[in-house]
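In keeping with the milestone schedule agreed at the kick-off meeting, the structural modelling team has produced records for the first pair of proteins. Each record is given below as a sequence line and a structure-token line. The laboratory manager (R.T.) confirmed that both were archived under the project's standard naming scheme.
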Amino acid sequence: MKAKPVKVKAAGQKKEKQIKQKTKPAKKRKIEFTKMVASGNDFIVYDNRAGAFKDGSDLAVRLCKRTEGIGADGLIFIERSKKADFKMRIFNPDGSEAEMCGNGIRCAAFYKGKKNSTVVTLAGILKAELKEEAVKIKMTPPKNLQLNMNLDINGKIYQVNFVNTGVPHAVYFVEDLDGVNVKLLGRLVRYYRDFQPEGTNVDFVKIEELDSLKIRTYERGVEDETMACGTGSVAAALIYHQKFLQSEGNFVIEIHPPSGEMLKIYFNYQNNEYTNIWMEGKARIVYKGECYV
């Protein structure tokens, strides 16, 4: 009688199968998001009121990539708050969490759709007003305003100005705005020793006419030039007033970023103090979608 062949498992075969099972990739989660734009700054807005994510740093790095992700200047979390109508958190493409973002807050307020709302940020509680497609927000009082700081960069002196408008900004006035290498010079100023350890955003500003400025911004956390910057626009307006006007009263400064969508900065200056600082500009929803993370 012919013997039946006996199947013998090779040593380690079972173990190898177990290893393969362990290394099976985790199932990805599908999330819904809204893509928004405010004056040229684009954001991914995620409603995190259910607390699905405790932190958005890793998510921002993945989703904000222009070539591999959705692409954006930042990731916005909308969260619950007991102190205001809602809380907004903003994560930069490098994963860092910013104290605030002017255009990001305007997107968040537009997303919520309430005519008058209050928003909790790391920089404080801000007010927002909706006017059709425009959103107007009340900014935090400026801090640490300094004029005419001389920076020695590669043997050349650059006279810049500084102010914190919720996040730090170095403001440099130029005559040839188009000729500025924003990414190169912006990065050198952003990491300059006087602004460490946090670093600073850098705004290159040209005076077009009375109360009208053109601006290009190198954003910290994005590490590149962006099409607009809300806090940078406020910084440019206040520094412009402090250097060239200095008179008391109510002011409206028009800011023209590369996006072509003008921002208006309103403020009062009295007794060496800036108050009632508001920023106004357009915001809109571009599209809604789903992605796997």
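The second protein of the pair:
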Amino acid sequence: MRRYGCGTTIAAMTPTPLPELPSSHLCQVLSRSKARLQRRVRLSEGVELAVWANVDDEVRYCQPGHHTLSVYLAGGEGSQLKARPEAMGAPGRICIFTPEDESHWLVRSPVQFLHLYVSDLAWAGRVVRMLDAEPRSRTLRAQIYGDDQAFHAGARALMQLDWQDPQQQLAADAIGQQLVDRLVLQSATPRQLQALQRPLGGLSAAMRRRVLAHVEAHLHDSKAVSLPALAKQACLSEFHFARMFRQSMGCTVHEWVLQQRLARARRALSARNVPPLAELALDCGFSSASHLVRSFRAHLGVTPTQFSIFQRNA
């Protein structure tokens, strides 16, 4: 066993190179360990997701400089914090690492976990927008093997998505930002939480028209209809825009965008000259014909072809 400096793995080994690694400190540490990076995606506003698998390893984190949410997806019963050997991991358990944390981990049996990395800048911006507070005054308490069903449900939902698919990236970003919001709320004072619970009105009529027109004009472009892009159109923070949009429309931004894409597809499939499915999919903002078919069947119970035939015979 060799002795390494702070922020490096303990066990001596030859790491397997991993392409395009995220820049977060914890991700860099894990890339030098036996851990295998299975999935990763950069979300908006300095937030990243990564899924790792590890076994038979020792890893040390040292003052990463950013917040991290860790959710165990599978295994973990053989993972423990060296300073707390009585605490053992399990599927669904969560850990929260703060920028100043130092921890030494033993991984004795297979474990798969999802990490959500929040950059220091992203955390500061979110604290200011949501809590109207000085970022340095609001920090999380580290947690080891906590139990939070909302974080676990969010992680499960993220694992169901294809992070490389533009449409599903929109959903992943929405879920990821909700998890960051929840982290920030855990740092809030009772007075700040009370202020956030006050009723919030919806979008003004003019703002609603502007946002919905933007969605209709840019359905084919997932980035243009993402939560950050629409919040910018409304000149609001993402947090407040998401709340006001839901108040006005009765659904999330992602749900509304998907509804509009399916509505556009239905109109095209009802026309006399139906375009090829691949062309129609791209025009409606779906990544491929198969993505259009899956979404259509999931929400309408029939395939686009079946819907088109029904419309012609109606």
